Amino acid sequence: MELEFSTYYKSLTADHRLDEEFIVDKAIESGVIPVELRYIDMRGVLRGVVKSSNDMLYYFHYVQDNDNFRLVKADDPFKISEANRILQTCQLGCTLIKADDGPPPSGGQGVINEEVDIDQQDDLLTDKHPASAMTTTPDRP
After folding, report:
1. How far apart are CA 50 and CA 39, in angstroms?
2. Distance between CA atoms of 18 and 40, rounded to whole angstroms?
3. What is the pTM for the complete model shown?
4. Which among 27, 81, 95, 130 is least surrounded, fewest beta carbons within 10 Å?
5. What is the mean pLDDT of the chain?
6. Looking only at Cα atoms, what is the longest distance across the chain?
7. Spatial separation of the C-alpha atoms in residues 99 and 73, rounded to whole Å
8. Which of 8-12, 98-102, 108-112 has the highest mean pLDDT?
């Protein structure tokens, strides 16, 4: 059973989700589990940085015309600093959803739906409190 990309990753923009899914898949094929991805799109060439689950940084380069994907580890202080700058400044990318950021992959059991939550709040406003005395008062006969 294959789950959707959006089950595990939250995109910064909705219109680049396919590119991000592709990059995440290619990184995983290369042995890197991305927790954060940031990049730029320069006329069919995607360039950016992947931060892995073990906090390692990798540059990636993907040329869409010839389906060429490269992943290179940032292995010196200058490259690491530059990769961190890219992670902070790029407007395209995605982030791995933490367990407390969204529904679990099992179908969302245990998460309260917004409509259900609103209904429960309405019930609290309209139901009679079990400890209240149902007596008349001078202003409400």
Report:
1. 9
2. 14
3. 0.65
4. 130
5. 78
6. 83
7. 27
8. 8-12
